[in-house]
């Protein structure tokens, strides 16, 4: 009996396109799920699982899983330029999606099963203004602005893939722990598709209201627990195991498959030329892990001649990766990570009751779940890790915003990190650098307003407690009397 299939079609609502399902006219000749599987990232284990299974981690060794493919049994492009033919097919929701138009590079699901809400309509923006700020020559810095996604952050790339897998296995509920962006994305996909119910775990006082408002507005069940993101992450994994709820945090390997496509679009924006550097904020380390996997696979398939270098940027108040990698020398070492050293680090952190604290709420994480995958990515991409202060983050954010691309504070960590690496001589002034801006500025407007405000009390309350003592690039409002002549005079002076 032929298998029942569904395809996504578009319904238009205002300026947004939403995906719905209808009967498919035909099935694929090749079912990619026959040649895709889940694999433990540690080579000494090497356990494998089918894509029809759901696991938070390897059931044999407890390690993280990744999605792997028998590439020699799958149709893959001979050149990345083959994707250019899809540019003229944007009426097709599959081609319109900035994730699924690269389906042949993440073929874990049959095409007709893929879920989309029009994610990935992002652009790679050259910015000489920001280049000058960080010390690069003109034409050498590019901003990959993920704030243009439907929920306003990069999370939609991964959610499209995770939601597709959830649909494949028949999940009816999906959960996440979140500092904001994951919850907004999950709630959006649940609301638009109607395929499952969203359950969101947040810590007490550890979420930006701009992000929380999205989850609430989209109808998600929100559970606020006493503790921070790390506490919420621990509990959501326990609850997901106990109740059989589908977990969409980046510990889910299918999430990272979707996030690979951010790098495909970067290459697309550079006409398939590989940049010298990719800079990305480091929180739960999902993006850096996904990017490393993307470039590793592209190189193995012969689609790129080399991989770029990777710079992962922590906030000083949430700098676990920096301390382990740069200060203690922890390395992937071809899968033989010194786990004892990592465990001792966390033990001391717990004993000292160190908690993550940064204005960049999206990366305010002490125990990044993708640490091991990120170490692998750093090895693949000859990576470096740096930490930047909240002061550096907000100054960089102001420079990005002045160029017309408002971003949330965490996004600007990538720019602040590049500035530091150029000053150190690690990045050359003429190297081509891509900074990933992970989310829209309205995700966390409080920090932005506080930085530019004339209200010193507000500045001190919001930023001063975070070690931010100046607004170097503030664009403050001019206060004038309600008088025409005074208004004209102010414009003549300041305009």
Architecture overview:
- The protein is built from 16 helices and 15 strands.
- It has 495 residues and is an alpha/beta fold.
- It has a domain at 123-151 and 253-447: Rossmann fold, CATH 3.40.50.
- A six-stranded mixed β-sheet has the order 6-7-15-12-13-14, with helices on both faces. It has a four-stranded parallel β-sheet with strand order 10-9-8-11, with helices on both faces.
- It is globular and about 75 Å long.
- The model is unreliable at 1-28 (pLDDT under 50).
Quick structural gist:
It is built from 16 helices and 15 strands. The protein has 495 residues and is of the alpha/beta class.
Biggest sheet statistics? 6 strands, mixed
CATH topology (level 3) name of the domain at 123-151 and 253-447:
Rossmann fold
First and last CA, distance: 72 Å
Number of strands: 15
Low-confidence parts, pLDDT < 50 over ≥5 residues?
1-28
């Amino acid at each position: 009996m032929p298998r029942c299939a569904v395809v996504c079609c578009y319904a238009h609502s205002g300026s947004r396109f939403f995906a719905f399902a209808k009967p498919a006219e035909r099935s694929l000749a090749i079912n990619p799920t026959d040649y895709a599987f889940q694999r433990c990232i540690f080579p000494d284990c090497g356990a494998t699982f089918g894509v029809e299974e759901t696991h938070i981690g390897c059931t044999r060794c407890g390690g993280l899983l990744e999605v792997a493919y028998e590439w020699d049994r799958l149709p893959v492009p001979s050149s990345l330029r083959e994707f250019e033919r899809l540019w003229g097919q944007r009426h097709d929701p599959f081609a319109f999606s900035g994730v699924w138009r690269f389906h042949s590079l993440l073929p874990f699901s049959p095409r007709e099963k893929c879920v989309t809400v029009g994610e990935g309509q992002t652009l790679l923006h050259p910015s000489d203004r920001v280049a000058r700020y960080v010390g690069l020559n003109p034409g050498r810095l590019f901003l990959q602005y993920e704030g243009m996604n439907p929920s306003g952050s990069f999370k939609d790339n991964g959610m499209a893939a995770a939601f597709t897998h959830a649909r494949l296995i028949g999940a009816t509920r999906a959960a996440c722990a979140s500092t904001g962006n994951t919850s907004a994305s999950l709630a959006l996909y649940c609301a638009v598709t109607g395929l499952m119910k969203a359950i969101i775990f947040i810590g007490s006082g550890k979420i930006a209201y701009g992000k929380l408002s999205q989850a609430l507005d989209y109808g998600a069940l929100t559970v606020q627990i006493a503790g921070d993101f790390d506490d919420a992450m621990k509990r959501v994994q326990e609850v997901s195991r106990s109740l059989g709820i589908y977990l969409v945090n980046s510990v889910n390997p299918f999430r990272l498959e979707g996030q690979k496509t951010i790098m495909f679009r970067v290459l697309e924006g550079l006409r398939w030329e590989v940049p010298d550097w990719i800079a990305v904020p480091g929180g739960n380390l999902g993006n850096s892990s996904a990017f490393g996997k993307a470039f590793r696979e592209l190189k193995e398939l012969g689609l790129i001649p080399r991989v770029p270098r990777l710079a992962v940027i922590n906030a000083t108040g949430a700098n676990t990766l920096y301390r382990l990698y740069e200060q203690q020398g922890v390395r992937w070492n071809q899968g033989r990570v010194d786990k004892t050293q990592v465990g001792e680090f966390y033990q001391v952190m717990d004993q000292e009751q160190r908690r993550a604290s940064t204005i960049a709420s999206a990366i305010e994480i002490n125990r990044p779940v993708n640490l091991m995958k990120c170490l692998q990515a750093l090895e693949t991409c000859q990576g470096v890790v740096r930490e930047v202060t909240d002061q550096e983050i907000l100054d960089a954010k102001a420079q990005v915003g002045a160029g017309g691309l408002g971003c949330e504070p965490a996004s600007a960590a990538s720019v602040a990190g590049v500035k530091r690496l150029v000053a150190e001589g690690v990045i050359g002034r003429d190297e081509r650098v891509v900074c990933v801006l992970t989310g829209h500025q309205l995700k966390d407007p409080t920090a932005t307003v506080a930085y530019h405000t004339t209200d010193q009390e507000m500045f001190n309350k919001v930023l001063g407690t975070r070690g931010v003592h100046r607004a170097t690039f503030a664009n403050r409002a001019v206060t004038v009397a309600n008088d025409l002549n005074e208004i004209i005079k102010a414009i003549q002076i300041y305009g």
